[in-house]
């Protein structure tokens, strides 16, 4: 199955050249519920995990009387292979990355981070010769559709060009672009693309962008690794301007809005990120093995 984003109403490379040099590539993941295997790229499925390596746990829980609770096994959130995602900057000798988190909110390595405590594991798939077959069941401690536990999804990656959040652009440029769009009655459908995606730029409409976005271990700039989103596109067949919504995949426009099938396409993981927004997992641009921070919007 291919899932395709509609063309944008405006192409800055042609129509607004001042913005063009700021173009970035992002990869929309287009997660859709399915049954991934342990070697596949996926969200919420089984990981290609060595049986001899202890499953990571969260020890940061206490009951109402302050007594330690748990530890609870971390939840498998995502797995990406280099074969499927050559754009990921894998550290030398690795070709598999796995994201696990505790569904509760915890402190982050970056002081302005807010959200789930994330762990990334970078591996060489061929090193896992004896994979773990029985993995912890998130439902022992958590509930799908209530907690931050993703339903198992297959991925249908699509590379797109997008433009950064306005606070990342040189002073005045975002305002000039906005005015140019206003004059023509267009809306911005090229910046900070919604939905689950790898790389690119995230919207910071809730908190504003932190003034410094640096790695706590080495000081190098952080960069967006993965955006997690409640919705892949806005509900209804039309966007806020009454135009067909660009981010509703062309192949799914026949789905009747607000049916269970359409809702599963729009909110495939069943997770409500923050208050129905999105979050970005930021990694160190010098070494993605340095502790990563989640920023929830
Ligand atoms: Zn925890
Ligand atoms: Zn670093």
Largest sheet geometry: 6 strands, antiparallel
Cofactors and ligands: zinc ion
Overall pLDDT: 95
| Terminus-to-terminus distance | 31 Å
Fraction in beta strands: 15-25%
Order of helices and strands: HEEEEEEEEEEEEHEEHEE
Work out the oligomeric state of the chains in this entry.
single chain
Global geometry:
globular
Integer-rounded radius of gyration: 20 Å
Regions with little confidence, pLDDT below 50 for 5+ residues: none
Number of strands: 16
**What class, by secondary structure content?**
mainly beta
Q: Please report the number of helical segments.
A: 3
Residues in helix, %: under 10%
Strand order of the largest sheet: 12-1-13-14-15-16
Protein name: DUF1963 domain-containing protein
Region (Disordered): 1-45
Summarize the structure.
The protein is mostly beta strands and 297 residues long.
How would you portray this structure in words?
The protein has 297 residues and is mainly beta. The protein contains 3 helices and 16 strands. It has helices spanning 12-15, 173-184, 260-266; strands at 24-28, 32-33, 42-43, 57-58, 61-62, 68-69, 72-73, 75-81, 96-106, 115-123, 153-154, 158-162, 197-198, 222-229, 278-284, 293-296. The strands form 4 sheets. It has a 6-stranded antiparallel β-sheet with strand order 12-1-13-14-15-16, with no helix packed on it. Strand 5 and strand 6 (68-69) form a beta hairpin. The longest helix has 12 residues, at 173-184. The two termini are 31 Å apart. Residues 215, 217-218, 220, 284, 286-287, 290 line the site of one zinc ion. Residues 1-45 are annotated as: Disordered. This is DUF1963 domain-containing protein. It comes from Streptomyces actinomycinicus.
